[in-house]
Amino acid sequence: MKILVIEDEPDMREVIIDSLEKEKFLVESAAGYHAAMDKVAAYDYDCILLDIMLPDGSGLSLLEEFKKLKKRDSVIIISAKNAVDDKVKGLNLGADDYLAKPFHLAELTARVKSVIRRKTAEGQMMLELNNITVDTGNRVVYVAGQELALNRKEFDILAYFMANKNRLINKTALAEHIWGDGTDQADDFEFIYSQIKNLRKKLKDADAAVEIQAVYGIGYKLAGR
Question: Do 115 and 159 have their domain in common?
Fold first, then answer.
């Protein structure tokens, strides 16, 4: 799951990032309006944490731009401003939740998981295909009822495939969703090939009735077999 933290205060931003990364989220950040706009225009996120007060623009204006772009990313407003009119305006503009500073990190994490839960696979936390079940809430994979041990990236790749089963997944889109900002510095997709190779082997060894099919020059597709 990929999170974008839009927060201009460096210490607060780093504390939030550290807390979410401990929960196994992939976290990116932006310190201002324009940096955030560039990221949201280029990538999709499972949840965006949005501060209203930014040095170069308003978080509420960002919400209006998200709406124009028809983005479906979940948004939680995090702000020291606790005025009712700001909260109402943010929710009317499409925010999923509002959390006033100061807040406990445990509550923030719970709110993030809650909005993701509502939107993951159209509200379904259990993704299923043939004899595979992916529990996205608890980050557990079962093959024919038996738990399959995967590392963090292998799980994220499989969950992404399961949420888009039988669809062609572009290599670039997969890399951006799983690896985030780090993709921009990569010279090739060797890091994807390695993880998918290992994932394929684990699925095969567990007699999973699915297949990660390579589409030459484009990407991959997860299909039943």
Answer: no
Give the amino acid at 169.
I
Q: Where are the beta strands (DSSP E) in 101-184?
A: 126-129, 132-135, 140-143, 146-148, 169-170
The residue range of the domain holding 180 is: 124-224
The answer to whether residues 128 and 216 belong to one domain is: yes
Give the pLDDT score at 180. Answer: 64
Q: Are residues 47 and 147 in the same domain?
A: no
Contact 77, 88 (CB under 8 A): no
**Both 113 and 128 in a single domain?**
no
Q: What's this model's pTM, rounded to 2 decimal places?
A: 0.60
C-alpha torsion angle, residues 30, 34, 36, 42 (rounded to 10):
-130
19-28, 57-66, 99-108, 187-196: lowest mean pLDDT where? Answer: 187-196
Structural domain tally of the chain? 2
Question: What is the C-alpha to C-alpha distance for residues 160 and 127, in angstroms, rounded to an integer?
Answer: 10
Could you tell me the sign of the dihedral formed by the alpha carbons of 98, 45, 39, 15, in that order? positive
Paired tokens of 82 = 């606790």
Do 86 and 128 sit in the same domain of this protein? Answer: no
DSSP state, residue 132: E
- Would the pLDDT of 81 be above 70? no
